[in-house]
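Let us work through a complete example step by step.
Step 1: write down the sequence.
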Amino acid sequence: MTAQDSATDDSAIAVSGGPTGGDTAGGDTAGGDTVRGRDATPSPSAARTGTVLAMLGVAAFSLTFPGTAWALTGLGPWTVTTCRMVLAALIAGGALAALRVPVPARRHWPGLLVVAAGVVVGFPLLTTLALQTSTTAHAAVVVGLLPLTTAALSAVRTGVRPSRTFWAAALAGAVVVIAFALQQSGGAPTVGDLYLFAALPVCAAGYAEGGRLAGHMPGWQVIGWALVGCLPLSVPGAVLALSAEDVHLGGRAVAGLLWLAVGSQFVGMVVWYRGMAAIGVTRASQLQLAQPLLTLVWSVLLLGEKLTPAAPIAAVAVLVCIGVTQRARVPATRAVRTPAAGRAPEAGDRNHPPAGANQDNRP
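Step 2: predict the structure and record it as tokens.
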């Protein structure tokens, strides 16, 4: 996004990804004092709530690959992708209509387009195509790389520059996850790998932009409007896919598709974006280091895949890395303006919203 409105949005949002995530980077204010390098660490209560929400999102996402594998037992890849979009959009659209949520301001549309392209269309389609030839264990490699990709794109997008300790721990965790997932699958490059690696920047962009937008509107509205906006594409796509691909509905295929639409595509994204708005995109993204290990556990329980004794060792190493990244300081590099002493913020001041203005990211 390079529009002027987007630049204005960035100046009114906490640099860590949400209104409770840290400092507010404001524009020029007469008589204001400039504060540089404040720590973007969220308050303890916001950090706890945001971490729990982000973890719930990770738990939901960990079932995405097994759910996709189930859905592919009776549906083609294009049918799975388009039908999950339509079903999730119907749920989101119903909630938006029931609560009479107004259409987002035009300045947010480009960001919603990025979210739609990344997490509604791109990542689901590419990973579903990959799972036609790859196992869920092998597909977990992409999740191991996703936190680093998301953090890097978020740093470019918001101007946040995580500390060296943060990057070192994140990189170490990613290496552990990648090595473990590759060891589980044999590590041989396949056609599916091309889809998986192509999905990385696509999904990371959707995560980073969704986390930024969740500072301006509730997280459920971010994914909700992205899904509804895709209906002109997903409905005709579902009709074409159903007519072109074989359909053999069974219990697993239906259960997998329903989970993808309800759990992964909507509910999981709702809590994930809200968690990112509370603790910041970069911190939340590191919680995904645990996702491949959770996916492997579900693969054993739901798909009958086998794990090696290396699993508990990798799990402990990843948890240690997550702990380090959650405690690492994330300095804000932008200048922050504060009102001069004795000067109250003016009504309508974008840089100093009134008390209670979406501070907890509620609808």
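Step 3: interpret the result. Confidence is low (pLDDT under 50) at residues 1-39, 332-363.
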